[in-house]
From TrEMBL:
The name this protein goes by in its record: LysR substrate-binding domain-containing protein
Family as reported in the entry's similarity comment: Belongs to the LysR transcriptional regulatory family.
Taxonomic superkingdom: Bacteria
Keywords, in A-Z order: DNA-binding, Transcription, Transcription regulation
SUPFAM superfamilies: Periplasmic binding protein-like II, Winged helix' DNA-binding domain
Organism, as annotated: Octadecabacter dasysiphoniae
PROSITE patterns the record matches: HTH_LYSR
Span of domain HTH lysR-type: 3-60
InterPro entries given in the database record: LysR-type_TF_proteobact-type (IPR058163), LysR_HTH_N (IPR000847), LysR_subst-bd (IPR005119), WH-like_DNA-bd_sf (IPR036388), WH_DNA-bd_sf (IPR036390)
Amino acid sequence: MVLRIQDLYTFHVVARTGAMQDAAHELGVTPGAISQRIRAVEERHGLRLFTRSKNGIALTPAGLALQSDVGKAFSTIETANETHLIGQNSTVRVSTSATFAHSMLVSSLGRFADAHPNISVTVETEDRLVDLKSEPIDLAIRHGLGQYSGLTSEWLCSPELVLVASPSLLEKHGLLNTPADSLHYKLLPDCTGQDWSIWFEAHGVDAKDAKYGMQYGNDFLTVKAAIEGQGLALLKDVFVNEGIAAGQLIRAIDTAWPTKFAYYAVALDEVREKPSVSKLVMWLKKDLG
């Protein structure tokens, strides 16, 4: 059976977008045509490439293997095509946390839109780590140390987090002199549950014995918990400045901020090379850095 390149490319687009409807819209065909093309590819390989449920579709192991083989080639072709069409409109899909979007990204994207009116940006805000190999996301902005296997990452900015505690908590357990002293306290997780472990790693502290308190999933609630003495909190200054000014919170330690603990633009190599993605990354590095 001869496999048409059109059918294989349709498989790639469905795998990239994660939805038959989105692929149909991008390719300008009906969802029925998409289904027929996917069926042709599955018949050619003799394997199911997608699982289907009420929540949508997902790649099977066979589908993941096929996308791994053909995805880079088709992405290279898409990049070459986009390069010739750069004067026309293009869209970059970004995933990041709601906190980063609110505090830094929205304002920067407003300026980016003025400078690059032919590039639109859509932003999805959620704290989970999206799978850039299978989900319809071009660029993820992640908070960490910049080490993401199989992906390219570029340092954007390193806003300092403030380690705070209530005065009564510090009076009870003593002041902190080093990052390791935090281990004597209960630690209040941020909304992602990851900042403490990354902060300890950046400072070279073995935190396997760290004790964690309640995770509230909202930085404003974490501030309230810190004010009430439930534990130490590691948060952006915008959330704690008011509490510090009112004497409800105290900076618990004064130490150099590890600049590797930062926000990074993360993407697949071939997606990072797209002109629209490249322009956005370069803008964010200059505008936020």
